[in-house]
């Protein structure tokens, strides 16, 4: 008997995926953490093609937002215009920085196991540092670094120090040991006061501590905006190491298009202030 049937060609609807669908697919991956196989099924495409689309969208968004970030990192003088109330006590404040870590799957490479181990988290991690302007905009996100790297080294590797100018003020947590590096550049460091063996703060130090705490709430909120994405919320697989920096960067800058950090208050006469 002669075999006449042909093996059917695999049906792919790849050409009909619009740019909007590709962006939507990427956002589902980042925000909701959908597995690639599920996204391929939802959009009616093959898994390899889905992987390529996600990677292209990731690189495109990273390059686009990287270019946009140049216009967000503006001078301290320009930031004085309509500065929100929590930041008004701090003149020439350029940026508020804070660090965060994402848990990383236990690497099989022995050297990588040690380099990514964070004593603070007692886990293998990827370390990032994020920065916001006094208006609450996320203006800086470092690449991902190994978990045992210090904040100072991560900032140095990212080129952060070169972005600052003499007279700028940087607000950070007490754990950031960057005083010497910034003072050499004429940049002031603003940290919560330390007791240094004393029993209590002076009244002036207590006021400063409260003021800094009120301001630093907003950079902690920025960290939450990045971690709220399900793709970054749980343990990151080792296979994502080559792209995790881009994902965190895109997540941070996309957060600027969401809910305003500082809401305008309405006056009694109906005007906005």
UniProtKB/TrEMBL annotation:
InterPro entries: HARBI1_dom (IPR027806), Transposase_HTH_dom (IPR027805). Keywords: Metal-binding. The keyword Metal-binding applies. Residues 16-66 form the Transposase Helix-turn-helix domain. Its cofactor is a divalent metal cation. Residues 97-256 form the DDE Tnp4 domain. GO terms for molecular function: metal ion binding. It comes from the Eukaryota. This is Uncharacterized protein LOC113213073. It comes from Frankliniella occidentalis (Western flower thrips). The lineage of its organism: Eukaryota, Metazoa, Ecdysozoa, Arthropoda, Hexapoda.
